Amino acid sequence: MHSANINPQIFIDNRKRFVAQMEKNSIAIFNSNDEIPSNGDALYPFKQNTDLFWLTGIRQEDSMLILFPDNPDKKYREVLVLVRPNELKEKWDGKRHRAHEATALSGISTIIWLDVLDGLLQPMIHLADTIYLNTNENDRKANLLAVRDYRFAQEMQARYPLHQYKRSAKIMRELRAIKSPLEVAVLQKAMDITDHTFRRLLKFMKPGVWENHIEAEIYHDFMMQGSAGPAYSSIIASGDRARTLHYIANNQECKDGELVLMDFGAEYGGYCADLTRTVPVNGKFTRRQKTVYNACLHLHNYAKSLLKPGINILKYHEMVGDEATKIFQKIGLLKKTDIKNESPDNRAYRKYLYHGISHHLGIDVHDLGTKTEPLKPGMVLTVEPGIYIEEEKMGVRIENNVWITKNGNKDLMANIPIEADDIERLMKSSAAK
Predict the structure, then answer these.
(1) In this predicted model, what pLDDT tens digit does every residue of 369-426 receive, in sequence order?
(2) 179's torsion region: left (phi>0), alpha (psi -120 to 50) or beta?
(3) Cα 267 from chain centroid?
(4) Is the four-CA dihedral 236, 241, 247, 252 of positive or negative sign?
(5) How does DSSP assign 221-249, residue by residue?
(6) How many other CB atoms are found less than 10 A from the CB of residue 312?
(7) pLDDT tens digits for 415-431?
(8) Which of 71, 57, 64, 73 minimizes the C-alpha distance to 30?
(9) pTM for this one?
């Protein structure tokens, strides 16, 4: 799969940021993900550990990063460990990085091979007082498998029981949430690719198209623009299926009179875009569909106006919920008695909006970042309110990605059509050709 190489200064700067948070005379070790078997002798497509990628730009399996900023030998203050290229393996699985190639990608000058690691690592551990080890502390994680990071942590603690151990994840959560301008430039490229694809889909959409045909168009257009492919499994949900938040079956016909909710985004240079638009299959919203769409767009714009330094996500969601309560009354979804009888833990609007409004975005679609601390300049978040009406078999969601700045935020998807009239106009002009 094609994947763009990006400016190695991103990874050089990221390592500097991490090292600045390390205790004196400490060493930090980061591992690549495992290769995971599927069935028989087949493997699932390899996906790099995103912490290791954030620090190195290396996507190859069996890789490791060692950071020891106080090592007396300057050569070994940054070490990238790679599997040694093997001619026979490369005949089957393809080329692996040479040392000079890995240096060009990562900015790390010291490259060693995995098969000589033990002789190098043990003396370094003996010099250090503290060892930073990495684990997956994403709050959305639901994986109970003993992946490489956890196995490695157990091995190190058994082998070196008298060292102090620290969690790298605690530092990474803070650092990865703040995107540098160089990172945002790569994110913007992923979003521009997604913009192009959305406009293509407006030309493609018509009654009788199947959801998986739309998904195929997305994949095709992403790849043609130099993307590595979708950043996540695309959600193409027409009709009542739009009420299922993570609908990925994408195997039904899009029918005349229905809306189709499309949640998709390109990956570029390891960074993710995350767009949602809901459009009429036949190119024309009904009066009720437009009423609900515009209510969702109002919530989207209101939520976006709140995202600025100082607010935390929990307070932000509470304020959006208050606005949703007012809007849902206006469009006939809630009555005064519904609101009167609600409780703080079971708000009335939750019947029609049952998910969060924003999450952090970056190398991971659901990227690392705090929910309780105030937002800071440099964070990138989604804005994605939805309205899901079981009685009307309708679901609408509208999502853009914003970059928090010291004065507010910048919508990185501001050029992507979002107004109902603009969507109709573009679909009409395409149908006329």
Answers:
(1) 988 899 999 999 999 999 999 999 999 999 999 999 998 999 999 999 999 999 999 9
(2) beta
(3) 9
(4) negative
(5) HHHHTT--EESS--EEEEGGGGGSTT---
(6) 14
(7) 999 999 999 999 998 66
(8) 64
(9) 0.94
Is 50 within 8 Å of 147 (Cβ atoms)? Answer: no
Residue range 296-340, pLDDT digits in tens: 999 999 999 999 999 999 999 999 999 999 999 999 999 999 999
- Name the amino acid, one letter, at 424: E
Confirm if 403 and 184 have CB atoms less than 8 A apart: yes
What does the alpha-carbon distance between residue 13 and residue 26 come to, in Å, rounded to a whole number?
19
pLDDT digits (tens, 9 = 90+) for 106-155: 999 999 999 999 999 999 999 999 999 999 887 776 666 788 999 999 99
What is the Cα–Cα distance from 385 to 154, expressed in whole angstroms? Answer: 42
Tokens of 244: 């299922």
Q: Quick check: helix, strand or coil at residue 228?
A: coil
Match 């684990």 to its residue by tokens.
135
Can you read off the two tokens belonging to residue 238? Answer: 């027409």
Closest Cα to residue 10, out of 269, 276, 297? Answer: 269
- Alpha carbon distance 78, 315 (integer Å): 41
Give the chain's domains with CATH numbers.
Answer: 9-177 (3.40.350.10), 181-432 (3.90.230.10)
Q: Please give the distance of CA 370 from its chain centroid, rounded to a whole number.
A: 15
Give, in order, the Cα–Cα distances in Å from 415 to each of 195, 386, 396, 410, 411.
8, 21, 20, 12, 9
In this prediction, residue 2 carries a pLDDT of 47
Kindly tell me the burial class for residue 351, based on how many C-beta atoms sit within 10 Å of its own C-beta (0-12, 13-18, 19 or more): middle
